[in-house]
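Reopening: structure tokens for the iron/sulfur cluster complex, inputs below.
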Amino acid sequence: MSDNLQVHRSVYEVLNGAQEPGPRLIANWLGGVLDAVGKGKPIAYHPFTTFSEIMVALDVQPICCEAWDMVGLQVDPDHAIKSIDTAHEAGIPPELCSFDKAIIGSVMRGTMPPPSMIAQSGMPCQNAYITYQAVSALTGAPLYVCDTPYNTDEEGALDYWVKQYKGMISFLEEHSGKKMDYDRLREVLEESNRCVEYWLEAMELLKLKPAPHSGPLSQGSLAGMMGFGTPEGTAAMKALLDELKDKVSKGETAVPDEKARVIWFHFQVFWDNTLMGFMNELGAVVPYVLFDDFRVEPVDTSTPERMIRSMAWRALQTPMGKVGRGSFDAFIEDLLYAVDEWKGDCVILGAHPGCKWVTGAYGLIRDACRERGIPLLLYDVDLVDRRITSAEESRTRIEQFLTTVIDR
Ligand code: SF4
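Re-run output (same inputs, fresh job):
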């Protein structure tokens, strides 16, 4: 497979000179990947539900595959679509999640550097399971999948999960030829603990009414996918928090007259950057996006055993990983919690067609919201592929819904 990294090299060139911490975080990650490609250093693929601290501590270059394709959109809006089409032409079924089709297609097109190894925690859904198997088959890279217990409250389930996590460290050691230095891992985890502390504080500020910010806390999810345990990831999150604090101290709000608070209970629509702004124009703010919701304790770094246990537990709380892997009750509970805590007036769930486990449970979501009198908009919008539901259609659905909510 040929190297076809021009799109990402271009993003790197654009961002590399930036001074702002957010772009610097992306540039640092891309620079590390391009350096690893140039020097033939090992690269480990991982999904967004598997944080990269173990790889950072082992000095193995991580690539969060879902993030790789979304970064490509910055210079080529068709980047992911081209990869999806490649996957379709190769016979990958259209029903597979478009994040995952893009990953498979990008591997086939050579627009993502090939992995030396793949480490995956089995979350959030079966799309991810099969995708990383397909990537392993395409590239020949060894694959390790942590088997996630269905119910982690069951006796022995957490111990089983921790064992899976230990297996992942052994796998990465074996295939990188490196040995884990637990003092180095402690440093990396203390860095990511700082990042999480800022992240949680920022999420708390979004509970203020009126809200100082509307839409995703991009630095949180970016730091989680590209820079967990690195100073760049922490700096990006801190910059966002400082910005929010500054706005709060000056009394600045996301919209001048907050008429409705929207709980956006899914990931953002990655190709439609102005959608949140459109809601602001209608007088609505979005103080909560599911992708940002990462309610965790700091990792206990006192001993190697506690580091692994604590990391393993925290991995189970990954945004979407937490609510997507077991009983659907967790999804409903978190949705209602978000409405209460972030003072939502309504919920919009733009469900991604790949998430069959969400669309199959629409009835449960409707019932839960109806029982509590929470206005709910459920509609299908692909988060990666803009050909499924157009930007105009999204806006028409959302405007009709928000008009009703605001007029209540
Ligand atoms: S949870 Fe939904 S968006 Fe995430 S990988 Fe699965 S199908 Fe795709």
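The pocket of iron/sulfur cluster is lined by residues 97, 99-100, 124-125, 127-128, 320, 324, 352, 354-355 (CB under 6 Å). Residues 182-205 form the longest helix (24 residues). Marking as resolved unless the reporter disagrees.
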